[in-house]
Amino acid sequence: MMILWRWFLSLVFVLQNALMMLILGIVFLPYAVISPRGARKACRTYAGWVIWTARWMLGLKSELRGQVPTEEVMVAAKHQSFFDIIILFYHLPAAKFIMKRELLWTPIIGLYAYRLGCVPVNRGKRGKAIKQMIADVESGRAEPGQLVIYSQGTRVKPGETKPYKVGTYALYSQLGQPCVPAATNAGLFWPKGTILRKPGLAVVEFLPVIEPGAGQADFMQRLEDEIETRSNALMAEAGFKMDDLR
Length: 246
Fold this sequence. Notes:
Blueprint: H1 2-27, H2 29-34, H3 36-58, E1 60-65, E2 73-77, H4 82-91, E3 95-100, H5 109-116, E4 119-121, H6 126-139, E5 146-150, H7 167-175, E6 179-184, E7 200-206, H8 216-237, H9 242-245
């Protein structure tokens, strides 16, 4: 009976958030067209709504740890769930995401992503995508912000392993900006590929800054080691064991 109730609450949660996205997208549309500030206000309002409704409807709380970067930096984040995107966007003052190009054609989301200055890439052509990514970022640097990249290129379920892609280093070396790694355990509570949402504490944690100038091998090794180690620790803190997740 309890699991059925969880499924029902999860369904209601998903539906009402989709409705709220539509409502906010329409209400803020004139402001978003006029100014990127309107787009950011709309998206932050939506992110706050998701965080609030997850807490009281599902018992899914969220917490941000570490020092929030406010300057122009690159954030290399672990990506397990849509919820970690929500948490990051809500707390970062001027987040811009490296995103799949196909999302630009998604109703509402595409327009707002464009107005936020998100950087679309074609993931099917990695080398070309990296060059285009760098060019797009460079052309938009007049508007400072925190550029968020998911170094594994996609959502990764807890317990799974995927390689960290060299595009993160390409951006890091080209931009000459500090890199702030970010770990998470959000996939335990907001899993990929299902509407079921679980109660608990979803955490996103900013880790120590990697200053500009590191070599590729050292950068990639440190990035993966620190993000994976801390993400696993956050999952263990939530009471989960890696063997149980496979």
